Amino acid sequence: MPVTPLDDHRWAITTPASTYVIAVEIDPLTGEATPRQKYWGPRLTAEAARQVAASGARRHVSSFSTPAEVEELLPVDGGTRWGVPSLQVSFGHTRSVEPSFAGASVHDEGGGAERLDLLLTDAHHPFEIVLSVRVRDDTDVIERWTTVRHRCDAEVTVTRLDSGNWFIPDAASYRYSGVFGAWAEELQLQRGPLPVGELVFTSRQGVTSHTANPWVMIDDGAATEEHGEVWGVALAWSGSWRLTTTHRPEGGVCVSGGFGHDGPRWRLAPGEELVSPAALGLYSAGGFGAASRSWHEYARRHVLPTAQEERPVLYNSWEATTFAVTGEHQLQLAKIAAGLGVELFVIDDGWFGRRDDDTTSLGDWWPHHERFPDGLRRLLDGIRDTGMRVGLWVEPESISRDSDLYRAHPDWALHMTHRRRDEKRGQLLLNFARDDVRDWAFGWLDRLVAELDLDYLKWDMNRPFTQAGWPEREAEQDRVWIEHTRNVYRVMDLLRERHPRLRIESCSGGGGRIDFGIMRRTDEVWPSDNTDARDRQTVQHGFSQLYPAGTMSAWVTDSPNPTTGRAMPLRYRFHVAMAGVLGIGGNLPEWTSAELAEAAELIAQYKEIRPVVQHGRQYRLAGTPGQERSAVQYVLDHRVVVLVYNPLGNAKRGPRHLRLTGLDPDALYERTSDGSRLHGSVLMSAGIRPAAWEPIGADHRSELVVFRKV
């Protein structure tokens, strides 16, 4: 059983490779209940779990500290705690929680999943807290979330509700891994010693954000790509969030994570409950690579709606047309794209309202009257006649001041009384927390998809929250920070329910909305507006730490790159994009016949390796991507695919032999390009000598290497 009761107050949560032991401890003097983590690491037997549940190391305690609070599942604001609270509640003039234990229950959820619920109540107020833990028999990822319920008539205000606190087992030292970034420079991996004190990763923007992503990994400083223990915590939420890692001066590390950021308040009406999103925990004994592969497999099995499908090769018209979308030009692009082997054609911004630039028409979601007086159907049918599926770009959450929608409903925009309405990118943000806005958005999206028989939506969101007020809700207007994201989820869920063939891409000015919450509703995500292949390698490296390649949209665009001005060979651009879901975004009529022929050949090659890249186990090999000789490897069944990169052709240092990994050492592997055969042990110990890694040559050399297990 994944959940094993050890007694009335202790439980062992067992995954295929790990065990997580928790206990509810009762203070004999005060009666206060403290749910505490007793163990999280390699898998234990039930008897061994009982032993660790009954044990515990004492920490240095003074009248100024309670260091054991790092081990609590949900440290509350109350009692003798001074660390980061995972739960803050105000009962009128009282801001403190004193939990009592009211019982536990185990639920069989089917499909190999079980859920443990721990019920706590406040010692005085009829206020309930439910700590939920879900475990599955096919993944090492453990899901946790928190529910609070208001059972009294008095005012109750929640100012912090984390999904849970995770204790990282004691070590001599600690190192953190995470990502930072900015627009066009998202998902940059960083690793460093975990400082004593509090390290906060957060978004206060109302979206996941470009600046950070809601996960952190902790190790003892010795873990490598394929060796060592790693603990990871991720949050499945697409709005504002906070992860706080606390390294206490007395020793001990914990990570508490949840939605929202500092400041907003959620008032609960009598009988109302508030449920946090899931926080996900993973222990891996196989280094960062094994941790990543566990996250990838979890996403495929339990997050992604269409993980079993192969994502199509798409063409997006934005960089070829920007706002100048016309039927004639789109058909010209479609015919060229279809000739290359593209399977999905997406018309980007500029098809609606009077959208001639970025200052107008967001909210007016009907075909541009001057460019498409008879609507879009004829154009889309013409694109379908080339054999491709069809999609459209939309931005449902934004509104232009110069729009019929804003003139009719200025109150629908986020705003505060007696405060200005600042624009970003020439637009405001709709208050998606409002039911009328949600219903309006679903209505026009539902009609658009049905009337045009759309296969695909690129759902964009190009600005963060500003002046995030909801004056009509008065003291409850901070709900916008939660309900906006929840209603985005609801609209996407309803669209998928009504249109089972529809596939959705998540975009937010590039990589501003990438997380396991949005991935539950979408089929792929756009990691960055920067399509420069060198820069994309570092973005894709950070992306792969948690998210699988089959969700990562990656385009080949023009050279010199429109963002960076860097020139690069077409083959290198393709080989970088082939590491995810291949897309084309260049101005195809300006490509030479030789470039078009090479592109068609490379697209055909990608289709051959696509199942392995999108569904296989991923291994990161050699040096830092985009800066040194590097490679990325995928293994699926008997097939092995390796994409090899050398950005700096005259580099004298760095690896000369590429060692593969994850193979059967006793098997023979045949290289498909020349029929040569090598044992798996040779490929993993001696490696191969990629032509792209020769010490003298041009910059930006790359190659595709494919092996088949004999």
How is this structure best described in words?
- There is one protein chain.
- With 710 residues, the chain is α+β, with helices and mostly antiparallel strands.
- It is built from 13 helices and 37 strands.
- The strands form seven sheets. Strands 6, 7, 8, 9, 12, 13, 15, 16, 20 and 21 form a ten-stranded antiparallel beta sheet that branches.
- It starts with a strand and ends with a strand.
- 53% of the residues are buried.
- The model has no long low-confidence stretch (mean pLDDT 96).
Distance between the termini: 39 Å
The average pLDDT value, as a whole number, equals: 96
CATH class membership of one domain: Mainly Beta
Q: Please identify the structural class as seen in this structure.
A: alpha+beta
Could you give me the name of the CATH homologous superfamily of one domain?
Answer: alpha-galactosidase from lactobacil brevis
Q: Which shape, going by the Cα principal axes?
A: globular
Percent helix, as a range, is: 10-25%
Quick summary:
With 710 residues, this protein is an alpha+beta fold. It is built from 13 helices and 37 strands. The strands form 7 sheets. Strands 6, 7, 8, 9, 12, 13, 15, 16, 20 and 21 form a 10-stranded antiparallel sheet that branches.
